[in-house]
Design goal:
By secondary structure, the chain is α/β, with parallel strands linked by helices. The chain contains ten helices and 13 strands. It is globular.
Length: 281
């Protein structure tokens, strides 16, 4: 059987190493508009330049989801297609992927397509992609993969730490006063993706050291016991190292992956921010 794992750029992977045989991976990009500039979140994007443009601009920035046509193209070339999108509460990507599925199946009724609303972004989507690849390698049927990945998703979570909130202020999601206070007092906002796919604030930590401790405490409280973890960071390798050291001190066998955020995840996490996907029991 041939497979395709399709994501939007809520996933940080541009390619996957050690792909299962007869499997393709494809990332369908969102676009980010900053003033009159439009950035396509694909492998050619200069994320640092995009973020510099965002911070230099006085205008609000916005993201646009892929069109159904973009997903239709991505669905071609495999018998079994699994699609994972950024949470539907932040983007219309999930709706585009679902609409494309319905259209595609009208002409290709023998193809299997399953669309997953991650209710999340970044590291948690990355975890789901890695697990999908592992399940496909086992030679499971389409139905078995869907059942297994649904159960797996119920045991993953997303924790985020934001060091800057300029974008949230420009888009009216935070007041300018709160934004200034966070910047002046070196505050880090520690939160999680809720079960409904919205962003939920858990703690405000002053400084990175306290943010690392708060992140670790919240993960353990939620049920992390040393399973796989993906830290997607926006220019903050230091916090990846600090969190990794703290986790391995408690859970020596923890499987930890650190990688840069996609353009879209950089747009949401901002400079210095992280999006941690982790497994719970």
């Amino acid at each position: 059987m041939s497979w395709k794992i399709v994501t939007d750029s809520g996933c940080d992977f541009r390619s996957l190493e050690d792909l299962s045989p007869y499997t393709q991976f494809q990332n369908v990009p969102l676009t980010i508009q900053i003033g009159s500039e439009v950035f396509i979140d694909d492998e050619g994007l200069d994320v640092d330049r995009m973020m510099a443009s965002m911070y230099a601009s006085q205008s609000s920035a916005s993201s646009s989801c892929p069109s159904p046509d973009s997903f239709l193209e991505a669905y071609k070339g495999a018998e079994n297609v699994i699609v994972i999108t950024i949470t539907g509460s932040l983007s219309g990507s999930q709706n585009s992927a679902q609409l494309a599925k319905n259209i595609f199946l009208e002409d290709h009724p023998n193809i299997n397509i399953h669309v997953i609303d991650s209710l999340s972004a970044g590291g948690e989507i990355d975890l789901i992609v890695l697990e999908l690849n592992r399940l496909i390698k086992q030679g499971l049927s389409f139905e078995e993969v869907v059942e297994a990945i649904t159960a797996y998703q119920a045991k993953t979570k997303l924790l985020f730490v934001l060091a800057k909130v300029d974008n949230l202020v420009k888009n009216g999601r935070l007041s300018k006063l709160v934004g200034k206070v966070i910047g002046l007092l070196n505050i880090r906002m520690v939160g999680e993706a809720s079960d409904q796919g919205t962003l939920k604030l858990l703690q405000k930590a002053r400084g990175q050291k306290k943010a690392v401790q708060a992140s670790f405490d919240e993960m353990v409280k939620a049920g992390y016991q040393g399973g796989r973890l993906v830290i997607a960071h926006a220019n903050n390798e230091k916090i990846c190292q600090q969190i990794s050291e703290k986790i391995r001190a408690r859970f020596p066998g923890a499987d930890i992956i650190c990688q840069p955020t996609s353009g879209l995840c950089s747009f949401y996490a901002e400079d210095g921010g992280i999006l941690i996907g982790y497994e719970i029991v």
